[in-house]
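Structure in, sequence out. Go:
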């Protein structure tokens, strides 16, 4: 009997090794390793923790499992562990449930008509509408842009426009919920919750930066959802290649679908947003060019003027608007103010740009700023070097030359430069 048991164990070990050899290590570790293996009457029985895992493995990995089982003269059967099974394993979902700390709900009733589109954003808007209408071939859709350009508004529009099941989280929520599931030993239920959807949306991917275990789990989630034909939407403040705190594999995964940038609101977009809030055309025309290109700020200005008119019972004239918005309307742009504004738009710290940092994202951002200042202002190269951290003349010349080379081959970077020049000219 002991010999038979040893042979059976050896066969199971050999089967597991053969399956692992035909799959990538992340998929094997996440889905196959937790299964309970058994052999009964020429049948390889794989017992999953829950029905979702069984269904997913059956739809995605059944061919590989059947091929390996056939090599040993077996057929594959996938079942779900019953509640009556005496032996338990860590994180067994049969006795655990996962409930989000904050119940997911639609935050707004925003439709795509609420997103004021300029020519630069026509492409990303079309991609979002296509994804909301059904399954697409370009998943994941990675949307990036500076704060206030409309990324969160677009994902809210996707969530409200689709009739399929959507799971939407912020980057901070994903980190917190994954950590809580590990603490509560409900990580398998958390995996099921994230995968049991037709569209998965993560707003502000950069919140995962530097969190290795969370990044590994999220990478596996993206691969599993994509293998199952689900839609994935990600947003961040910079392009995948410029994300700090992520290894090259994660950056490549983020960029493996469709990457689209969202341009900051133009003067005309700001004018339309202001007029939609009830501000008169002449006031909107005058102040739209004096508000920073930040959608959050524009909405705040519109709300302030609208609330003033309602509370005071007065029509907001230009004189009233200038007095009311004295702390908001832009005055003349100083070079340092321009550099700080560009730091915010490019998602880098001002101290890093003006310091001795040499990481790729900071160096590229610093070079872009030097190029923009040269095109948008009358500053000398020496003055440009001074406001960018006391760089010498040769460094500025080299930086501008590098950007000119990149602009010829990188259309996205070229568009970013043109937008920044237009903002600060």
């Amino acid at each position: 009997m002991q010999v038979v048991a040893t042979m059976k164990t050896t066969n199971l070990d050999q089967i597991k090794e053969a399956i692992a050899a035909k799959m990538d290590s992340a998929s094997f570790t996440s889905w196959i390793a937790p299964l309970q293996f058994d052999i009964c009457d020429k049948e390889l029985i794989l017992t999953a923790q829950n029905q979702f895992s069984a269904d997913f493995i059956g739809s995605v990995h059944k061919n590989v499992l059947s091929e390996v089982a056939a090599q040993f003269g077996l057929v594959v059967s996938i079942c779900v562990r019953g509640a009556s099974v005496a032996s338990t394993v860590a994180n067994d979902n049969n006795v655990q449930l996962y409930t989000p700390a904050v119940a997911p709900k639609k935050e707004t009733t925003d439709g795509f008509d609420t997103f004021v589109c300029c020519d630069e954003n026509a492409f990303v808007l079309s991609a979002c509408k296509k994804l909301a209408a059904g399954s697409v071939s370009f998943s994941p859709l990675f949307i990036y842009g500076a704060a206030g350009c409309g990324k969160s508004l677009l994902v809210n529009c996707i969530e409200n426009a689709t009739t399929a099941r959507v799971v939407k989280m912020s980057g901070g929520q994903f980190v917190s919920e994954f950590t809580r599931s590990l603490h509560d030993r409900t990580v398998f239920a958390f995996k099921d919750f994230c995968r049991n959807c037709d569209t998965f949306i993560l707003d502000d991917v950069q919140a995962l930066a530097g969190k290795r275990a969370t990044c590994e789990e999220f990478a596996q989630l993206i691969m599993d959802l994509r293998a199952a034909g689900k839609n994935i939407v990600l947003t961040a403040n910079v392009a995948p290649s410029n994300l700090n705190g992520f290894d090259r594999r994660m950056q490549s995964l983020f960029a493996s679908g469709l990457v689209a940038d969202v341009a900051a609101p133009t003067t005309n977009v700001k004018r339309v947003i202001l007029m939609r809030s009830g501000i008169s055309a002449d006031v909107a025309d005058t102040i739209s060019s004096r508000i920073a290109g930040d959608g959050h700020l524009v909405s705040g200005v519109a709300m302030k003027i609208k609330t003033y008119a309602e509370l005071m019972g007065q029509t907001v004239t230009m004189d009233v608007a200038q007095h009311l918005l004295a702390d908001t309307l832009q005055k003349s742009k100083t070079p340092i103010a321009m550099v700080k504004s560009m730091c915010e738009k490019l998602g880098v710290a001002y101290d890093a740009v003006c310091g001795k940092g040499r990481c790729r994202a900071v160096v590229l951002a610093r070079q872009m700023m030097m190029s923009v200042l040269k095109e948008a202002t009358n500053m000398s190269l020496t003055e440009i070097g001074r406001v960018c951290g006391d760089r010498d003349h040769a460094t500025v010349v080299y930086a501008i030359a590098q950007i000119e080379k990149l602009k010829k081959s990188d259309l996205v970077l070229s568009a970013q430069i043109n937008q920044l020049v237009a903002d600060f000219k």
